[in-house]
Amino acid sequence: MAADPLPERTRTILAEIIDMLVSVVGDELLVVGEITCATTFNDDLALESIEFVALAELLQQRYGPSVDFLGLLAEKDIDQILAMTVGELAAHIDRVTVADQACAS
């Protein structure tokens, strides 16, 4: 059995993102199938722009203003946005919040 390549902290963030997605999109999201690090926002979840905005608000409420999801999207070209995965977002949040904690210390 292979070890989970995600650090525990990133797994926790991933679970929190999934909970936020369910609150934004609704329980019908759960019938799509398991949401994993490889799940894409566009092809797999088919999020609409208003859902991206709602998710961004929840992320900032939970993790603070440094987790600027819409800013992260603005840095990407259209192909990168379409291919972005839930795992990429979790890793981004992990990096940003670790950096914030280091600055606060």
Q: In a nutshell, what does this entry contain?
A:
InterPro entries: ACP-like_sf. This is Carrier domain-containing protein. By secondary structure, the protein is mostly helical.
Shape: globular
CATH topology: Non-ribosomal Peptide Synthetase Peptidyl Carrier Protein, Chain A
Total helix count? 5
Distance between the termini: 38 Å
Largest sheet: none
Overall average residue pLDDT: 86
* Poorly predicted tracts of residues: none
Q: Helix share of residues?
A: 55-70%
Radius of gyration: 14 Å
Strands, count: 0
Q: Please state the second-level CATH architecture.
A: Orthogonal Bundle
Give a written overview of the molecule.
Helix 1 crosses helix 2 (49-63) and helix 1 (8-25) packs across helix 5. The radius of gyration is 14 Å and the shape is globular. It has 5 helices and no strands. It is an all-alpha fold and 105 residues long. It has one domain (8-104): Non-ribosomal Peptide Synthetase Peptidyl Carrier Protein, Chain A (Orthogonal Bundle), CATH 1.10.1200. The chain has helices at 8-25, 49-63, 69-74, 78-83, 86-104. The termini are far apart. This is Carrier domain-containing protein. It comes from Streptomyces glebosus.
